[in-house]
Amino acid sequence: MTLLIVVLAVPILKFLPKESLEVHSSQALTSGWDPDVIHAEVGQPLHLRFTSDDVVHGFGIGQMDFSPVEILPGEWTETTLLFDKPGIYTYYCTRWCGKDHWRMRGTLEVGETNPVSPPADLPLYLTLGLDLDAPHPSPVIPANKPSAATGSELLATASGFNEYLSKDYYRIHSPFEVYDGLRDTVYSDSERWSIVAAIWRSNTSSEKLAEGKGLFTENCAACHGKNGAGDGVFSDDLEAQGSPAMDDQHGIKKPASLNDPSSILGASPAILQGKITRGGMGTGMPMWGVIFTEDQIWNLVAYIYSFIFIY
Question: CA angle, corner 93, sides to 92 and 94, nearest 5?
């Protein structure tokens, strides 16, 4: 179901409604928002006044076409929200404010009279019964970074690859599984890897990769690093923090390296999509499924593979 939101910025104090909900933001020990649950009604304007108690923060609403509100220390910023559909929304900090930035989440509950909610679709990883925490190393690593362009040239003169090129097949198979499935063909090992790269590239586009890169740069690079090596500016802080992770009680681990071919070539797109959707993995990684749309997550997955393949 598509949820729409109308945002009305109110910059001039004399036009502000008299009754506004004050929202304080601060570097998170728990949620970082006070209050961390906000209630609203469909069709009724929700007037919010924001201030920060420490550093600059941002207010964003997940899965919405919504321009974040900048929240400055010691100043007030006002916004009016108007929802036309009920639902449970997640609001979050859009500025990297510290090592606990990922904790800055709140819930916006929008209700209506006599609500009728359709059943929610299960995430793909649950439908497939995938264990997101199980290791998935690739038994074989290519000698060189596979080229999608080379693979496309090979596919141009080949036949019998329609199944491999389908979206459904791509999403539930790892690159290694496809490579291994080509072992009885006439292609060399390097050619087989290039064909795999071409199949992965055929399931995305330049526009989708650009969106995935933008999402990664804005939301993931601070931990995973701009090149996916797990060396972002907060990676050492998270590892040293040693506080309980989101999904276990054994301390936060260093963010995963996304340019490690052993790990990524052994992971299907469905596994990566599930990890991003659910979060956790002992790293303090947020649950992005309430922030990004499904299309955004698939575009982010496609971009992650560009660390391994030459597109």
Answer: 115
Query: Mind giving me the DSSP string for 173-221?
Result: S-HHHHHHHTTTSS--HHHHHHHHHHHHHHTS-HHHHHHHHHHHHHHTH
The whole-model pTM stands at 0.80
CATH number for the domain formed by residue range(s) 5-111: 2.60.40.420
Burial of 116 (0-12, 13-18, 19+ CB in 10 A): exposed
Q: Is the dihedral of CA 233, 238, 239, 240 positive or negative?
A: positive
Interatomic CA distance for residues 107 and 33, integer angstroms: 10
- Residue where the block lists tokens 């979206």: 167
Domain coordinates in residue numbering, the chain: 5-111, 122-311
Residue 194: which region, alpha, beta or left (left: phi > 0; alpha: psi -120 to 50)? alpha
CA nearest to 219, candidates 286, 305, 268: 286
Cross-strand pairs, 35? none
Asked if 308 and 261 touch (Cβ cutoff 8 Å), the reply is yes
Q: Using pLDDT thresholds of 50, 70 and 90, give the confidence band for residue 19.
A: low
Q: What mean pLDDT comes out for the span 45-74?
A: 93
